[in-house]
C-alpha cells in the first residue's frame, strides 16, 4: 500500500499561497477563512502547525470580524455563519478563543435562529441544517450553547430525518452524507443522539462504500475523498464504524495523493486542492493512521484542541 | 472562469467609471491561503470594493456586480450587495430571473445562485411558482441529482405551490433513470405532502404496485427497496402482512439472483414476525454459493440469510455478522 506522504502535504499547504493567477486562487478569495481552516487544521493534524506565523494569522482573522460579531470570508467581505465558525475554529487551533468578544459572536449566532428552531446563514434568511450544525458547534466552542433554544434546534433537525435513517437540508430533502454529518454532529454536541436510528442510518452509511473502497455521498454517485470525512465521522459518532472496510477506505484515500507535489484530490488522478487535502488527512485520522493526530468527529478539530476548550470552564 | 460573451474594455478606460478610485483587496500580512488574481478579475474587484465601500446603489454598480459575478459566481459579498442595490433601485425582478438563469447554466452547483434565486422567488410570490418549477426542471435535465435544484424545487412547492404535475414529473425522471435516488426521494415528498393526492394512506396501494414493478425490473436498486419500506412508515404490521412485499423477495430469489436487498428485506420481515413458507428456504438454499460460506445446515433461515449476505457482501461483512448476532431468539 502507498504510504501517507505527510511532509509533501505540509509543503503543498504552505505552497498554495505562492501559486499566482491560478483559477483556484481566484475563486478562493472570498472564502479564504474556510481555506485557512482547512489548511491550518491539516497542518495541525500532521503536527506542523508551528510552521505558520500565528500572530499574523490571528490578526488577519480578527480583521475579518464585523460590528455584528459575525466574520466575513476575507477582510472587507460580508459576514456569514459559515465563515464565523471557521474563524472560531482557527482561533481554537491556536488556543486563542479568549481574545474574542464572546458575547458579540454569540449574539450574532443567536440572532440567526428562527422561530421553528432552524438557523439562517445570514440576514437574507436561507435555511439549511448545515447552519444548525455550524451554530451549535460554534456556540459549544464558546461555552454559550445555553443562549439558544437547543430543544427547538434539535426538533428542527429531527424533522429533517428521512425514511432511510439519513438527514437532508430541510424537511423532505434527500439524505446526503454531508447533511448527515451536520445533523448527527449537531445532535452529538447537544447530547441528543437518541433521536438517531443508529442501526438504520449505520446501514445506509456503510452502503456508501463502493468496490474501490471509497465512499459516495448518495446512492449511485461516484466515491469522493471528502465523503470519507462525512460518512466516517457520522459512523463514529453513532458507534458503527466497524461496519465498513476501513483498510480499503484508507487505501482509496492514499491513492488520491499527489505523491510528487503533495495534496490530495477527490478521486485518484484528479487535481488536488486544499479542501480534499484536509478531508483526506482528517479521514485518515479517523482511521487511526499512524503519524496523524486524532481528530474529533463532531467538532472537526484535533482532539487535544477540543479537550482543552471543553475542559476549561466558560 | 468564463467571460467569453463579455466585451471587455478595462474599467479604468471606461468614461462612466472615471470618478471612481479602485480599492485593492487587503489580504492582511503574509496571506495564509493563496490569493492570486488575474488582471481583469483584480480590476473588477477593485472597482467593486470602491462602490461597495461608498455604498453606491446605482445602475452602474448593478452592472458591475453582473461583471464580477460573471468572473466568479461564488463571491458571497457581491451577491449580497447586488440584492441591496436591487432593493434600492426597485428593479424589475423578472429581468433578474433571466440574469440568474444565465449564470446558473454555468454554475448550477453554486450556493449563492440558489440562495439569490430563492430570495427573488420569495419576493415575487405564488405567481413565480410555474417559472421556478420550469427553471429547476431545466437544471435537472442537465443533472437529475443536483441537490440545490431539488432543494429549491421542494421549497417552491411548499411555499408557492405548483404540485399539479409533480408525480408525473417523478414518473418521467424514473423512466429515464430508475436508479435516481433524488427522484425517489421527491416521489416520497409528493406522495406524503402534496395537498392534491390525499397523503400516504390514500396512495400506498398504488405506490406499492409501482415500486414492486420497479424492483422486479432492477432488483439491485437500493433506492426502490428503501422507498418500498418507507411506504409502510409507522405501520410495520401492514408491511409484514402485505403479501406483495414478501413475494417480491421470493420472486427475485427464485431466479437464483444473489440480491442483497431481497435477502435483507426478507431478513427484516422474518425478524418482525413474518413466517416464511418452505419455498423461501428452498430459494435461499438454491442460491449459487459455496456450501462452506453458509454454515451448518441446522441453521435457521434467518441465520442462513445473514451468512449468505456476509459471503456475498464482504465490504459490509461486519454489519451482516452483527445482524446475525442480533437475531431475536424466536428466529434462530
Ligand atoms: Zn469532494
From TrEMBL, chain A:
<dbReference type="GO" id="GO:0005968">
    <property type="term" value="C:Rab-protein geranylgeranyltransferase complex"/>
</dbReference>
<keyword id="KW-0637">Prenyltransferase</keyword>
<comment type="similarity">
    <text>Belongs to the protein prenyltransferase subunit beta family.</text>
</comment>
<keyword id="KW-0677">Repeat</keyword>
<comment type="function">
    <text>Catalyzes the transfer of a geranylgeranyl moiety from geranylgeranyl diphosphate to both cysteines of proteins with the C-terminal sequence -XXCC, -XCXC and -CCXX.</text>
</comment>
<keyword id="KW-0479">Metal-binding</keyword>
<dbReference type="InterPro" id="IPR008930">
    <property type="entry name" value="Terpenoid_cyclase/PrenylTrfase"/>
</dbReference>
<comment type="subunit">
    <text>Heterotrimer composed of the alpha subunit RGTA, the beta subunit RGTB and REP; within this trimer, RGTA and RGTB form the catalytic component, while REP mediates peptide substrate binding.</text>
</comment>
<dbReference type="InterPro" id="IPR045089">
    <property type="entry name" value="PGGT1B-like"/>
</dbReference>
<dbReference type="GO" id="GO:0046872">
    <property type="term" value="F:metal ion binding"/>
</dbReference>
<dbReference type="GO" id="GO:0006888">
    <property type="term" value="P:endoplasmic reticulum to Golgi vesicle-mediated transport"/>
</dbReference>
<dbReference type="Pfam" id="PF00432">
    <property type="entry name" value="Prenyltrans"/>
</dbReference>
<dbReference type="GO" id="GO:0048364">
    <property type="term" value="P:root development"/>
</dbReference>
<keyword id="KW-0808">Transferase</keyword>
<feature type="domain" description="Prenyltransferase alpha-alpha toroid">
    <location>
        <begin position="5"/>
        <end position="300"/>
    </location>
</feature>
<dbReference type="GO" id="GO:0048229">
    <property type="term" value="P:gametophyte development"/>
</dbReference>
<dbReference type="InterPro" id="IPR026873">
    <property type="entry name" value="Ptb1"/>
</dbReference>
<keyword id="KW-0862">Zinc</keyword>
<protein>
    <recommendedName>
        <fullName>Geranylgeranyl transferase type-2 subunit beta</fullName>
        <ecNumber>2.5.1.60</ecNumber>
    </recommendedName>
</protein>
<dbReference type="GO" id="GO:0004663">
    <property type="term" value="F:Rab geranylgeranyltransferase activity"/>
</dbReference>
<dbReference type="InterPro" id="IPR001330">
    <property type="entry name" value="Prenyltrans"/>
</dbReference>
<comment type="function">
    <text>Required for male fertility and root tip growth.</text>
</comment>
From TrEMBL, chain B:
<keyword id="KW-0460">Magnesium</keyword>
<dbReference type="InterPro" id="IPR002088">
    <property type="entry name" value="Prenyl_trans_a"/>
</dbReference>
<comment type="similarity">
    <text>Belongs to the protein prenyltransferase subunit alpha family.</text>
</comment>
<keyword id="KW-0677">Repeat</keyword>
<feature type="region of interest" description="Disordered">
    <location>
        <begin position="1"/>
        <end position="31"/>
    </location>
</feature>
<dbReference type="Pfam" id="PF01239">
    <property type="entry name" value="PPTA"/>
</dbReference>
<dbReference type="GO" id="GO:0004660">
    <property type="term" value="F:protein farnesyltransferase activity"/>
</dbReference>
<dbReference type="GO" id="GO:0007323">
    <property type="term" value="P:peptide pheromone maturation"/>
</dbReference>
<dbReference type="GO" id="GO:0005737">
    <property type="term" value="C:cytoplasm"/>
</dbReference>
<dbReference type="GO" id="GO:0005965">
    <property type="term" value="C:protein farnesyltransferase complex"/>
</dbReference>
<keyword id="KW-0808">Transferase</keyword>
<protein>
    <recommendedName>
        <fullName>Protein farnesyltransferase/geranylgeranyltransferase type-1 subunit alpha</fullName>
        <ecNumber>2.5.1.58</ecNumber>
        <ecNumber>2.5.1.59</ecNumber>
    </recommendedName>
</protein>
<keyword id="KW-0637">Prenyltransferase</keyword>
<dbReference type="GO" id="GO:0005953">
    <property type="term" value="C:CAAX-protein geranylgeranyltransferase complex"/>
</dbReference>
<comment type="function">
    <text>Essential subunit of both the farnesyltransferase and the geranylgeranyltransferase complex. Contributes to the transfer of a farnesyl or geranylgeranyl moiety from farnesyl or geranylgeranyl diphosphate to a cysteine at the fourth position from the C-terminus of several proteins having the C-terminal sequence Cys-aliphatic-aliphatic-X.</text>
</comment>
<dbReference type="GO" id="GO:0004662">
    <property type="term" value="F:CAAX-protein geranylgeranyltransferase activity"/>
</dbReference>
